[in-house]
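#dry-run=false #mode=assembly
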Amino acid sequence: MGKNLTIIIAETAGFCFGVKRAVNLANRAPERYPDQPIRTLGPIIHNPQVVEQLAARGVIKTDDIAELGPGVVIIRSHGITRQLAARLEKIPGLTIINATCPFVRRAQEIVAKMSERGYEVIIIGEPDHPEVAGLISYGEPERTRVITTAKEIPERFFQQKKPARIALLAQTTQPQELYNEIAGALLPIKGELRCFNTICTATSDRQSEVLELAGRCDCMLIIGGRNSANTNRLHQLSLTRQPRSYHIETARDLRPEWFAGVDTVGISAGASTPQWLIDETVTALQKLASRS
Amino acid sequence: MGKNLTIIIAETAGFCFGVKRAVNLANRAPERYPDQPIRTLGPIIHNPQVVEQLAARGVIKTDDIAELGPGVVIIRSHGITRQLAARLEKIPGLTIINATCPFVRRAQEIVAKMSERGYEVIIIGEPDHPEVAGLISYGEPERTRVITTAKEIPERFFQQKKPARIALLAQTTQPQELYNEIAGALLPIKGELRCFNTICTATSDRQSEVLELAGRCDCMLIIGGRNSANTNRLHQLSLTRQPRSYHIETARDLRPEWFAGVDTVGISAGASTPQWLIDETVTALQKLASRS
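#status=ok
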């Protein structure tokens, strides 16, 4: 690494619209509700540094609804299940700040509406992801399912004589290609297939830019929580184009030896990575370069 | 051709459900409405022999609505436009027998309902086909279009920021592959894509069986009107597997030289070909075989 190190920050690095909104709501909560306990149900976003910062301001993560009493609870951007929302509403003196991403909320409403109207609802997504757990809870259990591949489409859909009525949607962060593939497999079914493209392009835009950057940089840094699925995915994609791709949580994770002979470093960050962690990394990189 | 000629008649040869129903309605009309003039708007089906037989019983084809007065008019299985239906309803003393195929009627209703609800309606089909002329007439003209390839999808659908609401359906006789291809091209569009698989499998079943038969027979006969699009298509498909494939309208079209050295003849017929034309052909073939 020379003194003329070029640092390129991806335009799509960091907070997406829904995360920005959730973090803003959490940040403003201590002012809006002074002298009240403020809790988030689960980490507000999958980023330990942001969670720590909020804790310092009195916005505490809890995983147990039994801990909640009078005060304020913030529902995170992934959303929660219908059952959990109903339980929260019954807790006396509890104010609910719903920071569910509006795109996730829209998907929840689609599941509820389609299920109510008698459609078989198919959700493309990771069964264990909190967003998906929320989505499926809005459907009639008998007629709502989560699938991850076209092979999981029930065989009876193709055999039934009565025209089917199927509604299809996806976890907002799923790849468009998988959505197209599964919808394509459903098309020959007799009847109606109602496809809701609920995929948020923030994820795919970020991924495309990482691939593009990794193709023209000597080294890639992907910043984000180790518990952030979308950050891990960015790192994997980056590795396919640039073996010198590193996943870091903060500037402290940087190792000088990564940058030997490097002229250009590309930086991106997951949807839950705040701008200050990106800025801090850039500053640390510049220091390293000036020393070499 | 020897005396042991094997004749294989396709199970799917001839009248489909909608045509059978239309011809039955036309056949019963003289009894149900004695002493009344009975007209069909255009040929009841694309088969000259059936049209002739009906004419002999007083069920006459007309192409001009001005010729209609008190009496009976039969709407053929392809259906008619909404505007024409409205004009027919205003003719005093005219009884309307609606022999529109129920599958076509369902497609017309989908166009009307989706258009009413504000969807952009896309119909996959041949722009000049009477069924398609009927279908499109049920939509809001500004928001209803007929396309034959994925390339004809308006570019603005992919660019608009507001989530789209698109309803897709097809002329009942379109190939499933084309429907899948066009729906597949629409899937990435933001918003909702409502796919109605209005394709009737009678057509594709008949086509698959012709291909299969043509692959194992020495000679193929496809029976049907020269003006029948689906019969012409069957003949083309048959030719791809068996160069000795002949399109005939009646047994009179048979030529003994076609069957030189032939052991097995396969027979299929278009959706508008009556059973008696198939039977007549089989009888004529058997005669030819016994003579040789």
